[in-house]
Specification:
Layout (H helix, E strand, L loop, with lengths): L20 H13 L3 H16 L5 H20 L3 H17 L7 H24 L3 H14 L9 H16 L3 H14 L7 H15 L3 H18 L2 H18 L2 H18 L2 H17 L3 H18 L2 H17 L3 H18 L2 H21 L6 H21 L7 H25 L2 H12 L3 E2 L40 H8 L5 E2 L2 E4 L12 H11 L5 E6 L11 E9 L1 E9 L5 E6 L1 H14 L6 H10 L6 H15 L2 H14 L3 E5 L22 H4 L1 E5 L13 H6 L10 E5 L23 H13 L2 E2 L16 H10 L3 E5 L2 E2 L12 E2 L20 E2 H6 L11 H4 L5 E5 L15 H7 L4 E5 L6 H8 L7 H14 L3 H19 L6 H4 L2 E5 L1
Parallel strand pairs: 3-4, 5-8, 8-9, 9-18, 10-11, 10-12, 12-16, 16-17
Antiparallel strand pairs: 1-2, 5-6, 6-7, 13-14, 14-15, 17-18
Helix pairs in contact: 1-2, 2-3, 3-4, 3-5, 4-5, 5-6, 5-7, 6-7, 7-8, 7-9, 8-9, 8-21, 9-10, 9-11, 10-11, 11-12, 11-13, 12-13, 13-14, 13-15, 14-15, 15-16, 15-17, 16-17, 17-18, 18-19, 18-22, 23-25, 35-36
């Protein structure tokens, strides 16, 4: 057996077996890189024939095994799966024959390396032919062998990991695949010149399959550069198909068609029939989209035939599923059923449960389409029920797939893909006129994801496809792999890297449809059970919470309103506190979008800076009474049902002003509900009839309400009333002058008599932190950093008031936890947010995760910064987290950390200076100071919501009376109290 695998200095070929084998191996590799796979196979077969003519010995058998495995690798590239499987089997048999033959340490290592190659290639064949469990077993066997192999640079380890990533992708476990691919990319050495670009391709396919097209293009570009550097022509051309797939799902159909056609021509020329079949499948979808039914059918038939000849069962089933849709489109229902069932049988057998869900969604969509086309008469209810029985479990599983992803951005993009399925469910439920089902849908969707503080990523389960009939080409990525991964659970540096990528979340709690404790019906319980059984995916957490805790709601009537986005806007409401009743509402999506757009045009945008604020004052609807009233009426007509207004009036007449608790959907989270002009003929606003409070998802409800976070942090029970008020008033941000973007909010210390009086009142009433001798010392301090804040909150506080800069996270990024407070922390402070010049902000992610991602002995944020019962965050869009699908921003982080009520803002706030400069108000008029005092007063009141609402009513009355800009809702309607 050869003992040498080193290239001599200046040699043109690697000395391994001697001539003509070494030169032949080098020539075959050149053909392979040039994408001339037939020539490569011919060279290997010629060498194999020569090796078989040599006298038999363990060394010669090893040579034959090497050549056969190389043939198998090239045949895998060419998607000759049967040929690859045969060559791989012969190679393994030869290796097994010589396993016990005498060999030195170096020989043993060469044997182990070849064995790993055969196992990895075998797993690749099994994966491509749909035998996923067998493929996993092969990877596990390779993982067992790997520790015996000397792999100082981790090259084989990374190859093994890449193969595992592709298996996860084929199973539809996108989140787990991304975690492992990202971790591997960060730890794979640069010397792994073949593995690194294929990892980049895998990440690109994952991103494009989950709606993140720009990152996908970036990964593909980086991969192309590396393939070009090593001269891998075939891999470069294969990227054409991946880019075409991305363009297709991005909606750039002409570009996708051109790229697929170019890739198909190359694959056909090279006789890479597996790649060609994938392109034909995609082109069939595109042909169907442009109305070419004949062309689509021809391409689909060709694709299916090729997949069946290759033995690629899952890919063939994908073609059958697409064929089922085409059969339905041409009215051939029996053929549609046959193909759909055939595809589902394959998916079920192979345990690819996300594809099973895909079939069920297609069947539900065809049932809905049939209901729209034909009169089902007395059987309509039965038909709708059947469609729901397919659609709702599949949609639940599709939504739940997001919990596999490590970042909120990835989850938000996935939810956009999942939304079509949930829109179908809501249409069917609305068609059924089933208020009970609509209620349960709203409760489940509004429960919210739970924060997962465990460092270990959740176990991956099958992920649902986007709600498109066309299957994801990434599921069938034929690439040049002979790689697998050693272990499913990452350890060491790789595990830390994967776990710290973002804020992990878990499924929402079960929602009991009874306000009382104890067993009872769980929202959507039959559909959840069906989803978990059919698709082997966890839909809800084991913990159950009541949809609403009403035990203490006896002082006045309360109505809980929840809103859910599903194309249209759906609303549910139910009464408690001495009033009874419930109802549902439905707003057409186009009307809702138009109303929200008009509101957005009236607000100062978070990214628009001074120009956005100027526009809000000069031409924004909230700065002029007539336009504001019209906007308030537009919002009410689109968002608020007249039936609910009538109920509020009736309750108010009998039992006094009710409390309206509103949990908005992300689309309407900036709506100032208090302002809604709920009467067509008068200027009566919702706040005239009721107090309004915003509610956060039930998943934020404390797990142990009897043990608040601050008591857990200190290990003692605290007398809250005896604790101080913590005042963080316009702290000085390191590196930013007073007139800079992160400069002073309230002006020079001591320049505002109203705020000086506020601080003095707090000093007169009891303890204040920080300790100050005069009120002016409370402003523009330089010592109010996160460590100071942690210390004072751990000691206990009854209130926290923050007035200063807040930087909201971009909604399109999906990561509400990136919102930040700007304290006096310098850039050297340890934290999870990126520094700005010489300053590191305190992010919501810090408040939630604490030091868990930073240290092995780290603590969660609730122990480092336990929130007092009442928190005020008076800064720009400090309550903007409810605009996100996952609410983990600053306001909800405070609730998570123990606050019972947080007063925050819905949009960017104008400062008093902005009123002076843009509205020419005299410096003696300070609207922001008045708002701060109102919030402070409310937080000292027994009922802060009622107190703040009373101030807002007073502001509204002044606005109606004189229309002066200092009384404009531009400032005061931004304030809202948030509770769970």
């Amino acid at each position: 057996m050869p003992d040498e695998n080193e290239r001599e200095e200046g040699a043109e070929v690697t000395r391994l077996y001697g001539e003509p084998f070494d030169s032949g191996l080098a020539l075959a590799e050149e053909h392979q890189l040039a994408a001339d796979l037939a020539a490569a196979v011919a060279v290997y077969e010629e060498l194999l024939a020569l090796a078989e003519s040599v006298e038999d010995s363990p060394d010669v058998r090893f040579l034959r095994a090497h050549l056969l495995q190389n043939i198998a690798t090239v045949q895998l590239d060419a998607t000759d799966l049967a040929g690859a499987e045969e060559a791989n089997k012969r190679s393994r048999d030869l290796l097994d024959d010589i396993a016990s033959a005498p060999m030195g340490p170096r020989g043993r290592q060469l044997w182990l390396e070849m064995l790993l190659r055969t196992l990895i290639a075998r797993a690749d064949v099994l994966r491509r032919t749909g035998r996923l469990d067998e493929a996993l077993a092969c990877l596990d066997e390779a993982a067992v062998r790997l520790p015996e192999f000397e792999d100082p640079d981790g090259l084989r380890t990374s190859e093994l990991g890449l193969n595992r990533v592709h298996l996860l992708m084929d199973k539809g476990e996108w989140g787990a695949a991304e975690d492992q691919a990202s971790a591997l990319l960060s730890t794979t050495p640069s010397t792994a010149v073949e593995t690194v670009p294929r990892l980049l391709v895998a990440l690109g396919l994952i991103c494009s399959s989950t709606g993140r097209f720009d990152p996908a293009e970036d990964y593909f570009a980086r991969a192309e550069d590396r393939f070009r550097a090593i001269g891998d022509t075939g891999a470069q051309r294969t990227l054409l198909a991946h880019r075409a797939y991305t363009a297709m799902h991005r909606g750039e159909l002409d570009l996708a068609e051109r790229l697929f056609a170019e890739a198909s021509a190359f694959f056909e020329q090279q006789r890479w029939f597996g790649h060609l079949a994938v392109c034909e499948q995609a082109r069939a979808f595109l042909a169907g989209r442009r109305g070419d039914a004949v062309g689509a059918e021809d391409l689909l038939t060709a694709s299916l035939s090729r997949f069946e000849r290759l033995g690629a069962s899952i890919a063939a089933a994908d073609s059958m599923l697409l064929g089922a849709q085409h059969a339905y489109d041409r009215g051939d229902i029996e053929e549609m059923k046959r193909l759909a069932q055939g595809a589902r049988d394959v998916y079920q057998e192979r345990e690819v449960y996300e594809r099973c869900a895909q079939v069920d969604l297609m069947l539900a969509r065809t049932l809905e389409d049939n209901l729209n086309r034909t009169d089902h008469g007395d059987h309509e209810r039965e038909s709708v029920d059947t469609a729901l029985s397919f659609a709702l479990p599949a949609a639940l599983a599709l939504e739940a797939a997001r919990y596999d992803f490590a970042t909120a951005h990835a989850r938000s993009q996935w939810l956009q893909l999942a939304d079509e399925a949930m829109q179908l469910v809501y249409r069917l439920a609305n068609r059924r006129q089933d208020q009970g089902l609509l209620f349960e849908l709203a409760e489940h969707r509004c429960a919210g994801a739970s924060l997962a503080l465990d460092r270990t990523p959740p176990a991956a389960e099958p992920v649902e496809e986007p709600a498109s009939v066309f299957p994801s080409a990434a599921m069938k990525s034929y690439a040049n792999h002979e790689h697998a991964e050693g272990t499913m659970t990452l350890g060491g540096v790789a595990a830390d890297s994967a776990a710290s990528v973002g804020l992990r979340v878990a499924p929402p709690p079960k929602v009991r449809m009874s306000a009382q404790s104890g067993p009872g019906r769980v929202a959507l319980q039959e559909f959840i059970a069906a989803a978990e059984f059919r698709y082997r995916r966890r839909i809800v957490d084991e913990e159950a919470v009541p949809f609403w805790i009403t035990d203490d709601l006896t002082s006045r009537p309360v109505v809980q309103v929840r809103l859910a986005d599903a194309g249209d806007l759906f609303m549910t409401w139910t009464w408690a506190g001495g009033a009874r009743g419930f109802g549902t509402g439905h707003g057409p999506g186009t009307e809702v979008d138009q109303a929200v757009r008009e509101l957005s045009d009236a607000l100062p945008g978070a990214g628009d800076g001074a120009e956005g604020m100027r526009r809000a004052f000069d031409s924004g609807a909230l700065a002029e009474h007539g336009s504001e009233r019209r906007l308030a009426r537009t919002l009410a007509e689109a968002l608020w049902p007249e039936q609910l207004t009538a109920q509020i009036r009736q309750v108010a007449e009998r039992a006094g002003r009710p409390l309206v608790r509103i949990q908005p959907s992300p689309r309407v989270a900036q709506v100032p509900w208090e302002l809604l002009a709920v009467d067509a003929g008068t200027d009566v606003r919702l706040i005239d009839l009721a107090d309004v409070v915003t509610t956060a998802p039930a998943s934020l409800r404390p797990r142990n309400p009897a043990a608040p976070a601050k008591a857990q942090a200190t290990g003692t029970e605290l007398d809250t009333d005896a604790q101080p008020v913590v005042l963080v008033l316009d702290p000085r941000v390191p590196g930013f002058r007073a007139d800079s973007p992160l400069g002073s909010v309230l002006g020079p210390p001591g320049s505002d008599p109203e705020l000086m009086a506020l601080v003095q009142a707090r000093l007169d009433a009891g303890a204040v932190v920080p300790s100050v001798a005069t009120p002016a010392e409370a402003f523009r301090r330089t010592d109010l950093d996160r460590d100071w804040l942690s210390g004072v909150l751990r000691k206990g506080a009854r209130r926290l008031m923050y007035v200063g800069h807040v930087s909201g996270a971009p909604v399109e990024g999906g990561q509400s936890e990136d919102g930040t407070l700007h304290l006096s922390c310098d850039a050297g402070t340890v934290g999870l947010a990126e520094p700005l010049r010489t300053h590191r902000p305190l992010s919501a992610k810090d408040l939630l995760l604490g030091s868990l991602p930073l240290r092995a002995d780290g603590e969660p944020g609730a122990r480092i910064w336990p929130a007092p019962p009442r928190v005020a965050l008076i800064g720009c869009e400090s309550g903007g987290d409810l605009r996100f699908a996952e609410s983990f921003g600053l306001a909800t982080a405070m609730l998570h950390n123990g606050a019972e009520l947080v007063t925050a803002t819905r949009w960017v706030l104008p400062t008093s200076f902005a009123f002076h400069r843009l509205a020419q108000l005299p410096e003696s008029v300070r609207p922001l100071s008045e708002a701060i005092i109102a919030v402070d007063t409310a937080h000292e009141h027994e009922d802060p919501v009622r107190s703040l609402g009373q101030w807002q009513r007073e502001q509204l009355d002044r606005w109606r009376a004189d229309g002066r800009v200092e009384h404009s809702p531009l400032l005061w309607a931004a304030m809202t109290c948030i509770v769970v």
